[in-house]
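Objective 1b. Sequence-to-structure analysis of Dehydrogenase.
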Amino acid sequence: MARSLLRAGLSVRVWNRTRAKAEALADDGAGVHADAGEAVRGADVVLTALNDGPSVSAALDAAAPGLRPGQLWLQTSTVGPDATIELAARATELGVLYCDAPVLGTRGPAEEGKLTVFVSGPPEARERLTPVLDAIGQRTVWVSHEPGGASRLKLVANTWVINLVGAVAECLGLAEGLQVDPRLFLDAIAGGPLDTAYLHTKSAALLTGDLKPSFAVSTALKDTRLILEAARQAGVRLDLTEASAERFARAEAAGHGAEDMVATYFAGRTEQ
């Protein structure tokens, strides 16, 4: 995201809890700061992109001394509706305009500035956010004026992705078990109504053994748990998603947590 902002000609200052990760952006033109408060001081838009709610909260604590009333906070992490409301309340205390803005897309779209950004935020933020949103994404979906709407939509979208990748993993696992060439399966449905580009992308990762994470198993497990908690509160039963959570947990326990989430494939093996 930072590189996309820089390519768009925007001035970017960065801070990361692991300084080396921020320093990697210096050659691209970003100003690197050791102090979060200094990184956000005077900025028109403050953007956070972290793994979970506690990480975002900790980053806010670190940045608070440099925040000023009226600043826009574009919070792009997937933290779930409950944490979103808590963060929005803290933003109000600090006088910051909070924009709930989780993104849809993995490593590739993020690097190319082609994310889809779901946004719930005050109408007066739209014009000021446009240069940032245009830089990091190919599409912005304005969901609502109040925080939480975008986060709820993100959980719905992630439910589709999480269960889809589980279907890919199970199909290829069954093909292996039945001694069917998985490429024959992929060819059989290619171009038809059941075909998806996602199927071929994730299948290729498994078949080549290139499991560099676009979206890691551990992160997928975190998001799946957020989905299940939101569903529980809404009185909705998600049998497929519960099964996906179990598979991700088994894959993580087997040492695949840092690999791409299609490594849930390895959770499908049973003792013979």
